[in-house]
Amino acid sequence: xxxxxxxxxxxxxxxxxxxxxxxxxxxxxxxxxxxxxxxxxxxxxxxxxxxxxxxxxxxxxxxxxxxxxxxxxxxxxxxxxxxxxxxxxxxxxxxxxxxxxxxxxxxxxxxxxxxxxxxxxxxxxxxxxxxxxxxxxxxxxxxxxxxxxxxxxxxxxxxxxxxxxxxxxxxxxxxxxxxxxxxxxxxxxxxxxxxxxxxxxxxxxxxxxxxxxxxxxxxxxxxxxxxxxxxxxxxxxxxxxxxxxxxxxxxxxxxxxxxxxxxxxxxxxxxxxxxxxxxxxxxxxxxxxxxxxxxxxxxxxxxxx
Length: 305
Description:
It is built from eleven helices and no strands. By secondary structure, it is mainly α.
């Protein structure tokens, strides 16, 4: 692939996944504050709407230019995304633009799409705006976490979850900056860093799910706990690979098998929540959100083999 095509496609693939993740982070923060902190609720809502606008812009230039692998990976949308948005909007009263999801579902990939300098310039400008917006969101998340940890604020979101979503935003920001500099996103060191990062994310997802399930859901709690333990071990494996004590191929293979399993667990859980068959305090969009992140990690792992 020519450098220009590589830059455009990797930028669009990255944004179609991560901007949706960022707008949903803003949504999860927005619904978690108490009435006393309504100013934070408003700020989170502003971020959510700004990411909606940025995602619209990305979608408007993506048809034909996005990669087939990203489009069909389940990381941009899943079979549950639209229903999860509708249910979450119903429960919260927050206006979620369902037509944006429909527009993403209508995107197509074309290996012969003519990627020219004009499109590359547009993508470069989108990257610059994303850098500024994600940087602001990171500062907002950091402020919230500081307030929570110093007992100046209460939110229904775990402190670890706030830290978790801040790390995801920092990874996204770093990757956009690397694209702008023309750096390779996935050299050997970056592959190990990605595996370490996402294995930790998967471990934390399992622990969040465990903590948000109703205490009566013994079977699901046990499964979530086991996934947490398994991915904690994979984090140790990835660190050992960085020290050259475990082969990188082993970490990738073990991570791929575990991520397939937790992906299936999340899919079943999301469906169960939408069908009102799982007792929890998990907002439906959170279930689909974690499922898309597992699908994203699976796509990366398959490309790393």
